[in-house]
Amino acid sequence: MNDHAVPTWEEVARDHGRRIYNFAYRLTGNPDDASDLMQEVLLRVRRGLPGYTPGSFEGWLWRITRNAFLDDIRRKKRRPTVALPEDDRSTLGSVPAPEDTLAESRLPEHLQQALLALPFDFREAVVMCDVVGLTYDEIADATDVPVGTVRSRIHRGRKMLRGMLE
Amino acid sequence: MTHPIDLLSAFLDGELAPADQAEVANHLHGCASCAADLEGISRVRDWIRGMPVEEAPIPLLPALRQPRWAWAAASIAAAALAVGLVVTPAQTEVLDLDTLAGQHTARVVVSPGISSIRGPVVGR
Amino acid sequence: MAKRIATLVLSALVVMPAAAGADEGLAEYLESAMDAEFHGSGVVMCTWGADSAATTYEVTRSDGMSMVQGPDGGLMLSGALTASKAGADWYALEVSEWSAWSLSDRYSLGDTTATIRLGRSATEVNVMEDGRIRARLVIDDESTVPLLTEVFGADGGVFRLAALVEFVAAPAVDMEMPESFMEHEMLMYGEPSSLLPDSAFGYRRTDTYALDGSGSQAFYSDGLFSFSVFEVSRGAAPGDFTDGSSFEVEGATYTRIVTASNVWVHWRSPERSYVLVGDLPPDHIEAVLSELPRPGTRGVIMRWLSRLFG
After folding, report:
1. A83:B53 CB<8 A
2. With C201 labelled, which of A37, B60, C1, C163 sits at a CA distance of 20 to 30 A?
């Protein structure tokens, strides 16, 4: 999307809805939370578009997404943000055949669990970078921290993932 | 240059200034441990990037409606119970000192101070 | 790093005489010591009047993570996430936001002396508060980790002592966070209580977090010591203070429990029920309490109204 044009709401929904959903899904590990969040973000985008001044659209959109996510957590206060999928317990309990061990550690469920175990700031930075595909500058803009902080959060997040998955 | 450990992810993502990018590349040629680190980080990055794109279970251009927060909360509570998770009750009128100790400790350890420099102590 | 603390301490002494504004040398030391990598085991002990408690603990800090073990369980820390273990399961509690740290200008560095502790070269440092010794640290020169921490009360007696008995600098350990948590909760900002002051005896209220239900946790810090004040409805049950002992501040009665790492104080004001927990010394606690809502009972009419309307 051209950074300097103001998109319509339909364009945002069409072009970014799936990315917002995936961002939310990887952050929460939960389809219900993810679709609620996507709807909330689209509502906020619609409310906010008239006041949007052309600039970094990605930064603007992902700041809205992130704030919607944090507001959700705030509203739910200290309700758990992580619930293990029901079938995880059996997966974890089974012993993989030796030749499956390496492949096992890359299963999406394992990756998702590892993501959920990261501290929030790291999880958010890794998901914005590797799932959403934002640049470090865009992540800095969306999360309101210096780009050096983004760099170290992404790196430390990946290192922790590596520790859990290898 | 000393090991550019904190720069490896940014290097991998092409997010360094050209001069730094070249300097890290140069270092990697002669440093097996950093090269191995880079390889590990790169593998993790590939895995995360290769995670499937989750399809939203509803059309992407929904007829807008109020989010189903309450419904979602209830369903998650039910799912949590199903796998034996403890769901914090909404109303706590008993101050459980262990919980308060946990909340206090969690905040203490993010800032410097006499308790955080020596390491916190478990329990109350 | 080897001589860094000694240099920090000495330069601070040369540049600024004691008690001349927030002490940069001390502030810089406190910040750097937080990240120092080490493995150690030790004992921590706390004494207030006739109440005393002690425990052993084991800490490993490496690669931005800490692991703490004690007789009551274990903790893992990484960034703002604290994971605690209950049985085989891990529970995570994460602080979402917090204010920048700053050190009160009442503290300054006093005398420093070179010494040997646990067979290692170390620097003994006094932390002064308005000209009196408030704490004594024996700092490992190589790692900047405090091998011994003593905090003194107003009478000069040791209020809290934390001493490492085993120590390894920069241990080669691989620490891993648990792969999943049974619960992952976040401590979110809440509305600051209008009944609590923004500062009390030089402690700033830096953050307020929401509690389940309708209460709040106000976090106060002067940069060296810190405490939380939990404010809940007056009728809330105050946990287990049945073994606590009573003490008085300016004629008002409070209940306290002394544990190895904290002091707990409970009281009820006419409006709310309070629990204060922190690592600050007794004379500070007493001064702070005199600036917080005071213990008291509600008038007959208020009690009658609350019985009517809950």
Report:
1. no
2. C163
How high is the mean pLDDT of chain A?
76
Counting as low any pLDDT under 50, the low residues of chain C are 1-3, 10-20
**Residue partners of C101: CB distance under 8 A and separation at least 6:** B111, B112, B113, C31, C221, C223
Q: How far is CA B27 from the centre of its chain?
A: 29
Tell how strand C158-169 and strand C38-48 pair up: antiparallel
- Assigned token pair, C307: 């019985």
pLDDT of the residue at C12: 45
CA distance A53 to chain B (A): 24
pLDDT tens profile B90-114: 344 567 888 899 999 999 999 999 9
Shortest Cα–Cα distance, A145 to chain B (Å): 16
Distance, in Å, from the CA atom of A119 to the CA atom of C272, rounded to the nearest integer, reads 34
Residue B75 tokens, joined: 């369903």
Q: Which of B94, B122, B124 sits opposite C69 (nearest CB)?
A: B122
Portion 96-155 of A in contact with B at CB < 8 A: 106, 108, 111-112, 115, 126, 129-131, 135-136, 151-152, 154-155
Give chain A's end-to-end CA distance (angstroms, integer): 37
- Spell out where chain B has E strands: none
CB-hemisphere CA count at 13 Å for C81?
A: 24
Confidence of residue A165 (pLDDT cuts 50, 70, 90): confident
Nearest to A32 among B54, B65, B72 (CB): B72
Q: Which chain A residue lies closest to B8 (C-alpha atoms)?
A: A155
Phi first, then psi: what are they for C126, rounded to 5°? -95, 135
A138 vs A144: CA distance, rounded Å: 10
Judge: B85–A80 Cβ closer than 8 Å, yes or no: yes
Q: Is the pLDDT of residue A43 over 50?
A: yes
How far is residue A73's CA from residue A70's CA, in Å, rounded to a whole number? 5
- At residue B26, what is the residue type? N
